[in-house]
Design brief:
Blueprint (H helix, E strand, L loop, with lengths): L25 H23 L9 H7 L1 H13 L25 H5 L7 H11 L5 H12 L2 H16 L4 E3 L2 E3 L8 H14 L1 H6 L11 H9 L2 H8 L23 H6 L11 H17 L10 H5 L1 H5 L1 H6 L2
Antiparallel strand pairs: 1-2
Helix pairs in contact: 2-3, 2-8, 3-5, 3-7, 3-8, 5-8, 6-8
Length: about 325
């Protein structure tokens, strides 16, 4: 029994070429393309350039706005900061974002543990052996009951948030109140940050290269200083800005497709926006990878005859 020939499918099969042929030097084309792109890259970089802002540090933050730094420090201490209540992968304070009733951060669990009060405030101050007043304040704070600590934290948070709070003569000045040793601890942390010691303490790692900036970045993101600098450079989420500074990786130029979705009504105000945008991008990635396999979608180039526009010189000369 003779097997019937396979039916020709224009989306899958390619008919043998019977038209004219000519020599093609791919090495020459690659060289020309490389030179054109190189000239354009250098020329546009010279004309438009790119900001080369230095990395924002805790020292820079505490020196520029010490009251904002102290306000953020007390929020870390009493557990009301964004990081303290974020949830996975840092802690279990929140179930995290969910989509279709599924919370990936809860399933994965805590794998980058961050204790905001300990990592951002208590442990750094404990690393100041030459400050006996701060060490005594730490002992008093740690030996107090959780209720007493909460009372001190709330009182100091109210005091530092008042319009009367300021920074004068190397010290935080806040209205009098019943906040026990908290004022001494926060003031010691602020002085430590202004000296640059806090940056060094939070980057101490048991490895040759220190490239894990997770904790300093989380601390910075809880305050207003970093957000205000981002707004000046039009880098806020609602400003569509992007910056690719020297030394940063992987760079942000490719993020435009992600940031676009955050401007869509519904997603722009959704508490699960990060997870929803990630899901959208994953679906689009799968669709892109499967275009050659999706009937109808893979036929669009043939139906629209775009190839005749691209190869118009060839088709104009073809009989």
């Amino acid at each position: 029994m003779t097997k019937a020939p396979k039916r020709f499918n224009p989306d899958r099969d390619v008919a043998p070429w019977t038209g004219p042929m000519r020599r093609y030097d791919i090495a020459k084309e690659v060289t020309i393309c490389f030179l054109v792109v190189a000239v354009l890259t250098v020329g546009l970089a010279v004309v438009f350039s790119s900001p080369d802002d230095k990395a924002v540090t805790l020292q820079q933050w505490a020196s520029a706005t010490p009251v904002d730094f102290a306000t953020t420090a007390i929020a870390e201490l009493d557990g009301t900061s964004g990081t303290a209540g974020y949830g996975g992968p840092y802690n279990t304070a929140s179930p995290g974002q969910s989509i279709l009733g599924v919370s990936p951060s809860t399933i994965i669990g805590v794998h980058i543990p961050v204790d905001a009060a300990k990592d951002f405030v208590l442990s750094p101050v404990a690393a100041l052996p030459d400050d006996p007043l701060a060490q005594q304040a730490l002992r008093s704070y740690r030996s107090a009951t959780s209720t007493q600590r909460a009372t001190w934290d709330a009182a100091y948070e109210t005091a530092i948030a008042s319009q009367a709070a300021s920074y004068r003569d190397g010290h935080l000045v806040v209205p009098l109140g019943n906040y026990g040793p908290v004022g001494v601890i926060v003031n010691a942390l602020t002085q430590m940050a202004r000296s640059g010691a806090l940056d060094a303490t939070m980057l101490t790692e048991q490895r040759f290269f220190s490239t894990d900036f997770t904790k300093p970045l989380l601390f910075l993101s809880d305050g207003n200083y970093l957000a205000n600098k981002a707004a000046i450079d039009h880098l806020q989420g609602d400003q569509w800005g992007m910056m690719n500074e020297t030394g940063s990786w992987p760079g942000q130029a490719w993020l435009w497709l992600y940031t676009m979705w955050y401007q869509v009504p519904g997603l722009s105000t959704s508490p699960n926006a990060d997870l929803q945008v990630w899901a959208i991008m994953m679906v689009l990635t799968v669709v892109l990878a499967c275009i050659p396999l999706i009937p109808g979608l893979r036929s669009i180039p043939r139906w629209t005859r775009v190839y005749r526009l691209i190869w118009r010189a060839h088709y104009a000369a073809k009989p």
